[in-house]
Amino acid sequence: MYCNKLKLIALFVILAISSSCKKDSLTDDGFDPSVGPINIPASVDPDPIKQDTVNKYIVVIGSSTAAGYGASVRDSCWVARLRSKLIGDNKRFKVINFGVGGYSTYKLMPTGYVSEIENRPQVDTNKNVTAALKYHPALVIINLPSNDIAANFRDEEILKNYRVIIRTIASSRAEYIITGSQPRNFPAVEQRRRLKIVNDKMIGEYPTHIDDYLQKISTPTFGILKKYSAGDGIHLNNAGHKLIYQSIYDFPLFKNVADYK
């Protein structure tokens, strides 16, 4: 009788141990194998750009022309043409496009910038020069054809903003290209003339960095030539975008950065 009791006690202990072990088994509903030792992912760098050791970056910042306005299809805009050319030529470059319609120099100023002049646009920290430099680009292309003049910002005000943007880029050791002014059908001829005046001042300050195609697509009074007009008096059509693409592609600084011999 005593032996039978011992056997029953021993059996009970074995069953209890077995039951408690099952709760820690790999098949238990409360066990998440995704966080088990063999499935813990390696530490992932939150900045994927740092992991890309193969490609270089070109970042475009600017306004509606950079964003592709006026082109009938996305593939016809100048940024897409440039991207396709680099891919077709097996160049290890990625083109990032931060163009946003309506933007002026103020929207692209470095993060933390506050204008001393009242009622000026605030910086877009997602699309500005600081955001562009997070890609550690080999080249930044600035495409701001006419919105500063449309907003009646003063010449020196515009140039001062460019100096801040360019100084920020230069501090990162990236190269930069600035597209010059673009014609626009402003009602007042004086405002259209300012496109040429600011364009010439920019060339004077950055002679090897300004891609100047203003007069190629302008009337004598700096409206848009009909063959390049998208019809709204502001934007360029497919032919105009193609001209910008070709002008940038042929620009000596671009050739040098993109390793075209």
UniProtKB/TrEMBL annotation:
InterPro entries: Ester_Hydrolysis_Enzymes, SGNH_hydro, SGNH_hydro_sf. Residues 60-243 form the SGNH hydrolase-type esterase domain. Transmembrane segments: none annotated. GO terms for molecular function: hydrolase activity, acting on ester bonds. Keywords: Signal. It comes from the Bacteria. Residues 1-23 form the signal peptide. The keyword Signal applies. This is SGNH hydrolase-type esterase domain-containing protein. It comes from Mucilaginibacter galii. The lineage of its organism: Bacteria, Pseudomonadati, Bacteroidota, Sphingobacteriia, Sphingobacteriales.
